[in-house]
Amino acid sequence: MLTLDLHPVFRNNRDIELSLRQIVFQAKHTGEPVVQIIHGKGTGQLRSRVLAFLDQRHIRRLYDHLEIDSSNTGRILVHFAPRP
Questions:
Q1: Residue ranges of the alpha helices (H) in 3-44?
Q2: Dist CA 59 CA 71 (whole Å)
Q3: Can you tell me the distance from the alpha carbon of 15 to that of 28, in angstroms, rounded to the nearest whole number?
Q4: Exposure string (b/e) for 53-76, b if CB count within 10 Å is 16 or more?
């Protein structure tokens, strides 16, 4: 499972998007089944930004489904379909 912790870059919009883009493309390229994105609990603004990024049509095509961890609302699990 690949993990992306957004705590170090949460103040820079460009770095957030770049980090998200890199981890999604890396997982897709390597066939990783799950990516864990840690955005923290906070006020929910970073979570909203992450979900908005993942909901873009060209990004949405790359993964199978999302899961917001019920035991830890500070992380999102992105599941990728197995490579053929």
A1: 13-30
A2: 26
A3: 20
A4: bbeeeeeeebbeeeeeeeeeeebb
For the chain, the first-to-last Cα distance in angstroms comes to 19
Which pTM value belongs to this model? 0.91
How many residues does this entry show for the chain?
84
- Which residues are CB-contacts of 81 (< 8 A; sequence separation ≥ 6)? 63, 64
Query: Which of 20, 6, 10, 17 lies closest to 66 in space, CA to CA?
Result: 20
**Which pLDDT tens digit goes with each residue over 19-49?**
999 999 999 999 999 999 999 988 889 999 9
